[in-house]
Write a structure and sequence with these properties.
The complex is a heterodimer of chains A (about 350) and B (about 1150). By secondary structure, chain A is an alpha+beta fold. Chain A contains ten helices and twelve strands. Chain A has one domain. Chain A has a four-stranded antiparallel β-sheet. The N terminus of chain A is likely disordered. Chain B is built from 38 helices and 33 strands. Chain B starts with a helix and ends in a 7-residue tail after the last helix. Classes of the chains: A alpha+beta (about 350), B alpha+beta (about 1150). The interface between A and B is large, with 94 and 94 residues.
Chain lengths: ~350, ~1150
């Protein structure tokens, strides 16, 4: 026995793996599986598609373009870049109850937040509250790094170009303007204002910004972005955070406020509304547009017809294909089925 | 004899350009001549490529010559120099890794070569120096050294034989490892050299080394005590070649004339150049296409960028001012750096990891060959050996198989099978072949005396015992007791009770041809034993244990023109007998015709069975006749002019009017399953060429035995013999024959449906082609240049239309020439050479794939081969199963890799249209780097190692399946286009699917919006799942490993994304993906779009599978036929390779 073992010391191991004989499942996609499979997938897709479509149809959206390109627009006067501190009012009308909670978005078009040079122009260390980089911002912030020799905080193009139009929404009830309470909380990702972005741990916050200047485009320094809530200032100001999350495409919308409190939490009743716009943000120079979007959301998010239609189309295609296959196979008497 | 030598010497003088002078034993020739010790190369054999010093630069240079490596180097440099969207580490690290791993692998392989070289170079030899015997390492032998070689040792360098221990100044040598001839050849010492080698004072003048094994001219000047030097001419019979083995001679002394790399053996080697597989060529072609795609993508983006920026307001919107540096840069320089940046951004389309994966697949995959226990041979206790893993897939692409004969197809072990006496067949009991209808008897001779007269039987057996030139091997013990030592090494004699002598002792015969030995042994089986030649008389032990003595009067030697030999003996009773044996064609005209008819059938039947047949005839010579013949022979032998012609005339005159006694059939034992293997190879569509150094007759019968030539095969012969038949100039005859054969085999042949029908099907006449070395060199080196290429073409065309081609009398380099010629012919077919001896090395190196057989003729072939297997029969599994699977695996691997990177990068390209052509990456850097390394690499690697789209048994049973992948079927442009389109389709789908979803980026039920990294992550998630599931769809063989890596990769992707986005990594400057993945998963819409896009991408695939299924009555019939051809298919085989078929059948299946 020992001798025999010695003799076959060179013999390859006789295991399933080395002999390529591992037990294996060899799936067969036969008509018997595929046709019912297609039918099932098709039906499921049609079901989802119907649900999506119906949901999407039920979402109400109201868009108000306030760029002021047309002379008739109330904001035309503000679109001149030389006019400062301009306020214009857009009036609009809601036919039926706009179910709440209503989300208040602003939208920009032809605006390339996804520009690479733009996107990298920020200092992540600054934004996580590192005081060292307050004094010496990262080179990537150029050309918004210094004013003279004073560092800009927050530096970089993204922060500098923060959207600074502000809105007030009024319902006009028999001539009187009732302000709709806009909630500025919960518009940015929770992780952004709780973990990712940090103010320096200096109180008051203002002191941390000593020896720095605000971005050139800003009218207020970072620590005064929200005068109403001291906790909503600095780098964790939610408007700032919403802006800092760069949009994927050149035509985008960002969440501005939610209408979740007060009388309008259930929705905006039918009637006339007036939107008061502090018009600061220039877009005409690059042929952009600005708009305000009011929308409610469902479980699938905002209104999006694409998904529902896609599901319906694919679902019905599956069903049609399975029927075609059925005919083909019936004609050839299921040669594969044995 | 002397004249001939002188002739040769003079002839040589004319041709010789340069010669070398060697002082035997380093003693100066004539005392008055000053010795300038000439410089010759040392006796080292070098097959390694690198040394310690040049390894790094040489290896790096070789590696960067690969276009892929060079490309990655460039990308890396661009990343270092230019401001690019991704960091240099992303491409530098993998490149460094690849280069290092490859360097280590090649270094290791070279180290093995060094080791093997050392084994040869350090082999101890004995050298005579100043009368002392000194042990030296073989590599230290210098030209001029006198070397001692003992029996069964191989010669360490090319030697001129000075002294032999045999009395007759000869020695026996086998050159089996050089030219495949395993018979013993006689070499002669230089005449009149002194017995005392110490005092021998001589110089040798000979030509500079040349590779022809059979040519050597030189002369030796022997100086004796101030006399005029004696001159002896030297020819090939004095030269002992390195690599040959000394046999049957105790020891010899020789002086080294050529050493090391200048020996004839080394000159017959070719440098081992790196072989590239056809798949690698395809990869390079695809790579070029993808490079073009890459460059054009970058060009398109750069152009559009500047077109787009020229619109007012687009170039520098207020929110994105340029830095001072950007403003200062020259416009054209900016364009150029933009172009480079785009290149870098899209460079992932050609991933380094593909090369790593391919290398890994090859390296790991080759273990399955080493591990295969079917390749384990219990005799030599070894399995297969893989020397290069680069060619695994080439094994599945072989179109031409060049095989050596001796030791490869045959065991070079002759065996007496049967004989036929007076038309009655006698078959040895143990013979294995079956008997057929017209066999008269199957018993041993002595039991069937009634069939042929006892007289005739004994006459026949005596003829066998006498008509040969066999010598009995003298070994001391046997010499004492010769009569008792009757048995031979191979056969056991227990069959015949009448054999009186027990078989404990060994007797071996030595002959110039192994079939003579077989005949003598055959006669011994039937009771007649040849005891040896003693003082001109042959001793035979007959059936009745009586010793008969015959005086050997004349031997009429065998020569290939007469194709027969005779002996004239005188028996005790005084009768003078002539026994003649020879090929049927040369005997039949010389005997009485009524005898011929009785035997012809047997002979023909035996010949088609693949046996070597010889006819035996005899004639009683009356005293006058003998006297006449004797006188004629003596006269002719002494003739000074035209001696050979004269001898021939006498021979022909003597060998007439004989009477035919019988015929013999000798089998050159084929290797196990040789015929089956050849049949399988031909069934798989391969053309088998036999290239041998052996004689044509021998080789031809082997071809019959291997069923390379069938009974109905028409042989087209182009040999020296056929050329001389016409009696015209050889050139003309060659021209005519080539044209005639071309007409027959090429023009008249019905146009064969390529790769569909086997040409031996009864409808077609099939042809076998035979050519010999001399004719081949005429074809290749015809006098006029135009003829030469024309002949070559004709020759190739004829050969390509023949089922089998036999090239005999080939020198090793000629074998390589043939391989090269076929290799470079139209369509550049993939060639495979298989052989076992050193004479096969050159063709093993020349062919695309070289296979060595771990045979008896040394390890040269094994060392130089790409794969080594113990037996010929293993070739079948190696090609049909391993080769097929490897090819399918790697082809799929390559296509899949290009596909997955196309649909990886295409969305990133499309994204440029939406981000102002700003080189914004769509995916995070981690995803960009990890995609090919972690997320999608393991499933394809597992697939490419484990996939069996058809299980091994079916592949072995159905040789025709091999044709489905012939001609690089799955890596041609059509499948490549299919995969590319698939990649484009998927890429478009991924990008635009998500694009339309993002028309409203508020995707969560809390109304918050997603940004650009969410966009990229959704696309990336769809991508990873789709490409992995696409592979899952293609997998036909799901082992647990496949399950593990496929589902594991997906799980790992999800886990990694959570992990990567879940922690603020201190080493990262930007936390772009922080909670992006988690947020994505919290959005129902994202889920739905992911599912939608994955399914939408895969549905066409599934549909395609269904529609490509064979269906309808025709397809069904085809399947039935196929399964009946396959014979017993295992139940698993019913799982036809549906998914694979969609790609492998691409080129010849119509939906």
């Amino acid at each position: 026995m020992v001798k025999q073992e010695k003799e076959f010391v060179n013999r390859p191991d006789n295991t399933a793996f080395t002999q390529q004989r591992l037990p294996a499942w060899q799936p067969m996609l036969s008509a018997g599986i595929i046709i019912p499979g297609f039918v099932l997938i098709g039906l499921a897709f049609i079901g989802i598609g119907v649900a999506l479509f119906v949901t999407s149809q039920s979402i109400q959206v109201l868009e108000v373009d306030y760029t002021g390109v047309e002379q008739s627009s109330p904001c035309f006067k503000c679109s001149d870049p030389d006019v400062k501190n301009c306020v214009c009012k857009m009036e609009f009308n809601i036919d039926s109850l706009f179910k709440g909670p209503v989300f208040f978005y602003y939208g920009l078009s032809n605006y390339f937040q996804n520009y690479r040079g733009y996107g990298v122009s920020k200092d992540p260390n600054q934004l996580s509250g590192d005081l060292d980089s307050f004094k010496v911002p990262s080179d990537s912030c150029a050309p918004y790094e210094y004013v003279g020799k004073t560092p800009i905080v927050p530096c970089g193009s993204v922060a500098n170009s923060m959207f600074n139009d502000s809105f007030k929404l009024y319902q006009i009830v028999s001539g009187a303007k009732i302000q709709v309470t806009l909630d500025g909380k919960g518009i940015a990702w929770w992780t952004d204002y709780n973990v990712k972005y940090r103010n320096p741990s200096v109180t008051p916050l203002k002191n941390a910004f000593n020896g720095t200047v605000k971005p050139t485009f800003w009218s207020k320094p970072a620590y005064e972005l929200d005068p109403t809530d001291p906790a909503n200032n600095g780098f964790i100001n939610q408007d700032f955070l919403v802006w800092m999350r760069r949009a994927a495409l050149p035509n985008f919308r960002k969440l501005y406020r939610r209408i979740t409190e007060g009388d309008y939490a259930k929705g905006l009743p039918a009637g006339n509304y007036s939107l008061e716009i502090a018009y600061n943000y220039p877009v005409l120079s690059f042929d952009g547009r600005k708009k305000v979007v009011l929308s409610n959301v469902s479980w699938m998010g905002g209104k999006n017809e694409f998904l529902g239609i896609a599901y319906l189309v694919i679902g019905s295609m599956c069903v049609v294909m399975s029927i075609v296959m059925l005919i083909v196979y019936a004609k050839f008497k299921f040669p594969e089925e044995e | 004899m002397l004249r001939r030598r002188l002739n040769r010497l003079f002839g040589g003088d004319e041709r010789r350009v340069e010669s070398r002078t060697i002082n035997v034993g380093h003693r100066s020739g004539s005392p008055n001549e000053a010795i300038i010790p000439p410089k010759f190369c040392d006796n080292r054999i070098v097959s390694s490529k690198y040394t310690v010093w040049n390894f790094l630069p040489k290896n790096l240079f070789e590696q960067f010559r690969r276009i892929a490596n060079f490309y990655f180097l460039i990308i890396f440099l661009v990343q270092v120099i230019v401001d690019t969207p991704t960091s240099p580490v992303t491409s530098g690290l993998p490149l460094f890794f690849v280069i290092t791993v490859t360097a280590i692998k090649q270094g290791y392989e070279d180290w093995l070569r060094h080791k093997a070289d050392n084994e040869v170079n350090k082999y101890p030899v004995t050298v005579l120096e100043d009368g002392r015997r000194i042990r030296k390492e073989s590599e230290k032998i210098k030209v001029g050294d006198v070397v001692e070689v003992e029996e069964d040792e191989t010669f360490p360098c090319d030697l001129i034989l000075l002294q032999s221990s045999r009395d007759d100044d000869t020695c026996f040598v086998t050159t089996a490892s050089l030219d495949g001839e395993s018979n013993h050849k006689t070499h002669y010492t230089v005449p009149d050299t002194e017995r005392n080698l110490e005092s021998l004072n001589a110089t040798i003048e000979c030509e500079e080394p040349q590779p022809d094994l059979y040519k050597f001219v030189g002369r030796m000047h022997i100086y004796t005590n101030n006399q005029e030097p004696a001159v002896r001419s030297l020819g090939p019979e004095n030269l002992l070649l390195k690599g040959a083995t000394l046999k049957n001679t105790q020891k010899i002394y020789g002086v080294a004339v050529y050493s090391g790399m200048e020996t004839k053996m080394a000159l017959n080697y070719q440098g081992k150049s790196q072989k590239r597989s056809a798949v690698e060529k395809s990869i390079n072609a695809f790579l070029l296409v993808y490079l073009c795609i890459l460059v054009s993508k970058a060009l398109v983006c750069t152009t559009l960028k500047y077109v787009w920026q020229s619109k007012p307001g687009q170039d520098e919107p207020w929110y994105n001012e340029k830095t001072q540096k950007e403003k200062d840069t020259n416009l054209y320089l900016k364009m150029f750096t933009d172009f480079l940046s785009f290149m870098v951004l899209f460079n992932f389309i050609i991933p380094v990891s593909m090369y790593v994966t391919v290398e890994m697949q090859k390296f790991l995959g080759s273990f399955f060959i080493t591990w295969d226990k079917d390749f384990f041979d219990p005799e030599i206790k070894e399995g297969a050996l893989v020397n290069t893993s680069d060619l695994n897939e080439e094994l599945g692409q072989v179109e031409y198989v060049f095989t050596d004969k001796t030791g490869t197809l045959t065991q070079n072990n002759m065996e007496f099978i049967e004989c036929c006496i007076d038309g009655f067949q006698y078959k040895y009991q143990d013979a294995r072949s079956e008997l057929d209808g017209f066999c008269v008897t199957d018993g041993p001779v002595n039991k069937l005396q009634q069939k042929a007269g006892r007289e005739r039987e004994e006459l026949f057996l005596r003829a066998l015992c006498l008509c040969h030139t066999v010598q009995v091997k003298e070994s001391p013990e046997q010499a004492q007791d010769q009569v008792d030592g009757l048995t031979d090494q191979v056969d056991d004699l227990e069959v015949d009770g009448e054999v009186p002598y027990p078989s404990q002792e060994q007797r071996s015969f030595i002959a110039s041809s192994p079939d003579e030995v077989a005949l003598v042994k055959g006669a011994m089986r039937y009771g007649f034993t040849f005891l040896g030649l003693e003082s001109k008389s042959m001793k035979i032990l007959n059936r009745n244990n009586g010793v008969e003595m015959y005086e050997l009067l004349h031997v009429l030697n065998f020569d290939p023109v007469r194709r027969r030999m005779s002996v004239i003996v005188r028996s005790k009773s005084g009768d003078t007998l002539l026994f003649c044996k020879g090929a049927d064609s040369s005997i039949f005209p010389r005997v009485r015709q009524e005898e011929v008819e009785r035997i012809r059938m047997h002979v023909e039947r035996n010949a088609t069975e693949g046996y070597r047949t010889l006819c035996v005839a005899y004639k009683c010579l009356s005293a006058e006749e003998y006297a006449q013949a004797d006188e004629g022979l003596r006269e002719a032998r002494l003739a000074l002019q035209n001696r050979e012609e004269k001898l021939m005339a006498v021979y022909n005159q003597v060998e007439t009017g004989m009477s035919l006694i019988g015929a013999t059939a000798v089998e050159d034992r084929l290797q196990e399953e040789a015929a089956e293997t050849m049949e399988a190879l031909q069934g798989a569509g391969m053309k088998v060429w036999v290239l041998t150094g052996d004689k044509m007759e021998t080789a031809k019968s082997t071809c019959y035995a291997c069923r390379l030539f069938q009974r109905n095969t028409e042989l087209l012969e182009l040999t020296v013999r056929t050329l001389e038949d016409g009696g015209r100039r050889r050139e003309e005859r060659l021209h005519d024959l080539l044209n005639e054969y071309h007409k027959k085999a090429v023009q008249d042949a019905p146009p064969a449906k390529a790769g569909v029908t086997r040409s031996w099907s009864s409808a077609n006449q099939d042809y076998g082609f035979i050519i010999d070395g001399a004719t081949l060199s005429m074809v290749l080196n015809s006098s006029s240049e135009s003829n030469s290429s024309r002949y070559k073409n004709l020759f190739l065309q004829i050969c390509q239309n023949c089922t089998a081609v036999l090239c005999c009398r080939m020198a090793p380099l000629q074998k390589a020439q043939i391989v090269k010629m076929v290799k470079n012919s139209k369509g550049s077919p993939i060639t495979l050479s298989i052989g076992d001896g050193a004479n096969d090395v050159s063709m093993i190196l020349e062919a695309h794939v070289g296979i060595g057989i771990k045979g008896k003729e040394g390890r040269q072939a094994v060392r130089n081969s790409d794969y080594a297997i113990p037996k010929l029969k293993h070739l079948k599994k190696l090609l049909l199963a391993h080769g097929h699977l490897y090819y399918v695996r790697i082809a799929h691997l390559v296509q899949y890799f290009f596909y997955k990177n196309l649909c990886f990068i295409l969305p990133q390209f499309l994204y440029q249209f939406f981000c102002g052509y700003s080189q914004q990456p769509l995916y995070d850097a981690a995803y960009l780097t990890m995609y090919n390394i972690c997320f999608t690499s393991m499933p394809i690697l597992a697939y490419s190692l484990l996939e069996q789209h058809i299980c091994i048994e079916v592949l072995l049973d159905n040789a025709t399946l091999y044709r489905e992948i012939a001609k690089n079927a799955t890596l041609r442009w059509r499948p490549f286009l299919y995969w590319t389109l698939l990649g484009v389709f998927h890429g478009l789908l991924f990008f635009f699917g998500v694009r339309y979803l993002f028309s409203n980026p508020a995707l969560q039920d809390n109304g918050q919006v997603f940004g650009n990294w969410s966009y990229g992550t959704i696309v990336f998630t769809v991508l990873v799942f789709t490409v992995t599931l696409k592979l899952a769809l293609d997998t036909r063989h799901w082992t647990w490993i496949n399950h593990f890596v496929i589902w594991g990769s997906l799980a790992f992707y999800v886990f990694f994304s959570f992990f990567w986005g879940g922690i603020i990594w201190p080493f990262l400057s930007q936390q772009r993906l922080y909670f992006v993945f988690a947020n994505m998963l919290s959005s129902v819409s994202a889920w739905l779009v992911i599912i939608l896009l994955i399914l939408l991408s895969l549905l066409p695939e599934i549909l395609l599978v269904v529609f490509r299924k064979p269906r309808g009555p025709n397809a069904r019939q085809k399947e039935l036929v196929q399964s009946s051809v396959g014979g017993h298919q295992s139940p698993r085989s019913s799982a036809r390779p549906l998914l694979m078929r969609t790609f492998s059948d691409e080129s010849n299946t119509v939906i």
